[in-house]
Design goal:
By secondary structure, the chain is α/β, with parallel strands linked by helices. The protein is built from 29 helices and 27 strands. Strands 1, 2, 5, 6, 7, 8, 9, 10, 13 and 14 form a ten-stranded mixed beta sheet that branches. The radius of gyration is 30 Å and the shape is globular. The N and C termini lie far apart (about 85 Å).
Length: about 900
């Protein structure tokens, strides 16, 4: 029989055990081994059955066991120690508190998904895992962050396989009362709510659930409340589910409702109000509109409010392709804003203008969330050096007239939260070398370029560690594979072969990630005969563990999964290659440490960063990857291999896959497997062990989320907070009026004449060290010298006279304008490099409150006639 109503019955903990409830509700347990060990000791069998979730565990422990623990003095001493440690962690000064006082009072961090722990399944892949690691690292560093997201009642989805290997999706209902969450309440005990106005006089209401991620509160909005109609209740049903309007409502709730939730949380708790708002991808971009509306309600006009909001906003883009950006029909967006819907005091035309693709090739009828995010943020970044370059190129149309490398998008390379992803055995090995506290600091705060202590660990210990982790993975894989085959309909009698799947002494390769086509799940199957030879080699075999989910609407991705599963089902290779369904955090935490090689073969440059290889590296697993994302930035032959790419413009996609797959097989056959299996004088693979050592000592400190968050604080959050403080109502109004004046006057800004004065220089040749005197006549129209900067831009030139690796030198105005209103600027240009050299002159807007001279997207240069008359200097 089916229950007509479901609710959660919570245990009543005896008074001595009350601290267990606080420990269970603070998600620090997900990365703090002592807290997890304490919960395991409550009831080891139920701990395993609960999925290692303290809240579920405490809901299942019999009262008699709790009563016994309440009188167990040894357990109570451990409980007091762990609870005291959490108190110290929550209240003590950390890295952030030791920094200068100019840092932000608080930062609000918005993301559509957060991967904190498998016990809170609110993530689909890398974006969410990164967001979770960002919150954890901020907590460890003491950064006063407030996380903001949505609470999805079905999460993403659970994945199983049909008998013929087709992906099946399942959407179990999540009860917030059974999750490590508490409801944010008003002083009278009623649930705190936010509400959005919808067309037709309707409302979308949402409760605010609080997940405590160490020191960081994570606010999660839930539309499944009784006051909503059925359609509105389903807005937060699934992560990345539903149609276009459903997605728009999710993003309005995340951005607009999220700002209102932050204001409510700060009002109820006294938490400092955020000075900086950080949007992780464009999904939360509407937060800027809500903040503009707040300022307009306080008496500001739209343009001044826009400048104030931009000054304190950071936007991070994660996609290297336009297809990865959310775009909505303009009419749909227009219907949800204005007098009869949300933000009624803001002109709908102003809203639409923020998201318009006004650049060449843009689609005028679509509203682009990333474009809005960039226009509403004074600071923006990609997530690796390579992705920063790709992003500047991709969005360069928003800054016409500027070279891509001058587009104001920087990069902060992603990192991973080491305490979450490092296997306990790896941590213990490090702690034996340098002590527990120093090991914890190395993994959280970072700051060192090297972990030199790794050099002192004996080869034997490293090799025994790696084999032990591989053996754990073999056990895990067999358990998961047996469960998967039972779900596919196999009986116990059919599954005896699983006991022989994988071998703890065989080179183990891991490949696990989402399954969009560009990640090329099946590249390894390109030449099946060569792959079989690798898997079944008599002396140097390899084994491969694969996992990954295709998006429910992506049949192409599902076909890739099925293709790989069918190959893995072949009795000839099924002991050497396995596909594990339902890839998630719990599986990943076993998979990364247990592999020897982490394989990554996306189409370059379509991976923005990729962090799975970072997690593997922290456990001594070597990377075998295309030079994309973070690997392009940090690859060295000392600690991994680079798969050559054939990413020329004219390469046929099939031909490219053939070339790159062949390169992958060559690397495995000729370099990787011999290195793993060859033995030195000690009987150990000493050259392989040295690569593991280099991975840990050189890559380890780089890939930390602690390093990443410190970079955000120093390079983006603090400048944004300072800009926010300087952008009071008067300054914001001044900047808005100045921008309007500059835009109106810019057609009259011209470079009219350029003179060069230098002795002993021919028209096309000069000596290194020569200094050129420049005299430039410019027209500024209705602007003055205080409104602009006149620059000479110089550097080496290519065959088409394009300046590369440019140096910029400002010129200074001389005297007053002439009778024709023209100004004269002068300056010196030093010829400090040899070879083909050139220069040009340009004029840019200049104001003390701009974060970048490219901010307005305005630039004036010499006319074509002037360029042709001047020729190219010193070609």
């Amino acid at each position: 029989m089916k229950a007509i109503r479901r609710f959660t019955v919570r245990p009543v903990l005896p008074d001595p055990l009350r601290p267990l409830s606080d420990l269970a509700r603070n998600l620090r347990w997900s990365w703090h081994a002592e807290t997890r060990d304490l919960f395991q000791s409550v009831d080891p069998e139920r701990w395993a059955a609960s999925g290692r979730d303290p809240v579920r565990l405490l809901g299942s422990v019999p009262p008699a066991r709790l009563a016994g623990l309440a009188e167990d003095r040894r357990f109570l001493r451990r409980l007091a120690s762990v609870a005291g440690d959490l108190h110290d962690y929550m209240t003590g000064d950390r890295w952030y508190q030791a920094q200068p006082e100019e840092l932000p009072a608080a930062v609000a961090y918005f993301s559509p998904e957060f991967g904190i722990t498998a016990a809170l399944p609110q993530y689909s892949g890398g974006l969410g895992i990164l967001a979770g690691d960002h919150l954890k690292a901020a907590s460890d560093l003491g950064v006063p962050l407030i996380g903001v997201g949505l609470l999805y009642r079905h999460g993403y989805f659970r994945q199983t396989l049909s008998r013929d290997g087709w992906q099946q999706e399942h959407y179990p209902v999540l009860d917030p009362n059974e999750l490590p969450l508490v409801l944010l309440e008003e002083p009278d005990g009623t649930p705190a709510q936010v509400a959005l106005a919808l067309p037709g006089g309707k409302q979308l209401r949402a409760r605010i659930w609080l997940a405590q991620v160490g020191r960081v509160p994570l606010l999660m909005l839930d539309s499944d409340v009784e006051e909503n109609d059925l359609g509105e209740r389903g807005v937060t049903d699934r992560l990345y589910g539903g149609g276009s309007e459903h997605r728009l409502l999710q993003e309005m709730l995340l951005g607009i409702g999220g700002v209102r939730a932050v204001r409510t949380y700060c009002r109820l708790t006294g938490h400092p109000a955020p000075e900086v708002f950080h949007t992780n991808e464009g999904h939360a971009g509407f937060l800027g509109l809500e903040r503009i509306a707040e300022l307009c309600a306080a008496g500001s006009d739209f343009d001044a409010a826009l400048e104030a909001v931009r000054s304190g906003t950071v936007f991070t883009t994660h996609t290297p392709v336009p297809a990865g950006i959310d775009r909505f029909d303009r009419e749909l967006v227009a219907r949800h804003f204005g007098p009869d819907a949300e933000l009624p005091r803001i002109d709908v035309g102003r809203v639409l203008k923020l998201g318009m693709e006004t650049y060449p090739g843009g689609e005028p009828n679509l509203f682009n969330m990333a474009v809005m995010g960039l226009r509403l943020a004074q600071r923006a970044n990609g997530v690796s050096l390579l992705h920063g370059n790709v992003s500047r190129e991709m969005f360069s149309g928003l800054w016409p007239g500027f070279d891509a490398d001058e587009v104001p998008i920087t990069s902060v390379t992603n990192g991973v939260h080491a305490p979450t992803w490092v296997a306990p055995e790896v941590f213990r090995l490090g702690a034996r070398q340098i002590g527990v506290q120093r090991a914890e600091d190395a993994l959280t705060v970072g700051g060192s370029d090297r972990w030199d202590a790794v050099a002192d660990i004996p080869d034997q210990e490293i090799w025994e560690l790696r084999r032990g982790l591989r053996e754990q993975l073999v056990t895990e894989v067999r358990e998961r594979l047996r469960a998967s085959w039972r779900q596919r309909g196999a009986g116990t009698a059919e599954l005896g072969w699983i006991d022989g799947v994988l071998d703890p002494d065989v080179l183990t390769i891991g490949f696990a990630r989402r399954v969009p086509s560009y990640k090329r799940l099946t590249l390894m199957l390109r030449d099946r005969d060569r792959l079989m030879d690798l898997l079944l080699h008599s002396e140097r075999p390899v084994q491969i563990v694969v996992a990954g989910k295709a998006h429910p609407a992506d049949d192409g991705g599902k076909r890739l999964v099925q293709e790989l599963v069918r190959f893995a089902d072949d009795p000839r290779v099924r002991h050497r290659l396995v596909f594990l369904p339902d890839y998630g955090m719990a599986m990943a935490q076993k998979l990364y440490p247990g592999c020897d090689i982490w394989l990554n073969n996306p189409l370059r440059p379509l991976e923005a960063c990729g962090t799975s290889g970072m997690k593997a590296a922290l456990n001594g697993c070597l990377n075998l990857s295309v030079l994309d994302g973070w690997w392009d930035e940090w690859f060295q032959p000392d600690f991994g291999w680079a798969i050559p790419t054939a990413d020329g413009v004219g390469t046929d996609p099939d031909r490219r896959d053939d070339i790159e797959a062949a390169a992958l097989y060559d690397l495995l056959e000729q370099r990787v497997t011999p290195r793993f299996y060859e033995r030195g004088r000690s009987g150990l693979p000493d050259r392989w062990i040295e690569m593991v050592r280099q991975t840990l000592s050189l890559l380890g400190p780089k890939v930390l989320a602690g390093r990443m968050v410190r970079e955000y604080v120093e390079r983006l959050y603090t400048p944004a907070a300072l800009a926010h403080r300087s952008m009071g109502p008067d300054a914001a109004r001044e900047l808005a009026e100045w921008k309007a004046r500059v835009r109106a006057a810019w057609p009259g800004v011209t470079v009219d004449h350029v003179e060069t004065s230098v002795s002993a220089v021919s028209a096309a040749l000069a000596e290194l060290g020569t200094t050129l005197g420049l005299r430039v006549r410019v027209g500024l129209g209705d602007l003055g010298p205080d409104d602009v900067e006149v620059q000479v831009v110089s550097g080496r030139v290519d065959e088409e006279d394009r300046i590369g690796d440019a140096t910029v030198v400002p010129l200074k105005p001389v005297g007053s304008p002439g009778e024709d209103g023209r100004w004269v600027y002068e300056g010196a240009l030093s010829l400090d490099r040899t070879g083909p050299f050139g220069y040009t002159v340009r004029i840019l807007p200049a104001h003390r409150l701009l974060a970048s001279s490219a901010e307005l997207g305005l630039v004036a240069g010499p006319s074509e006639e002037l360029v042709e008359a001047a020729g190219l200097l010193m070609r």
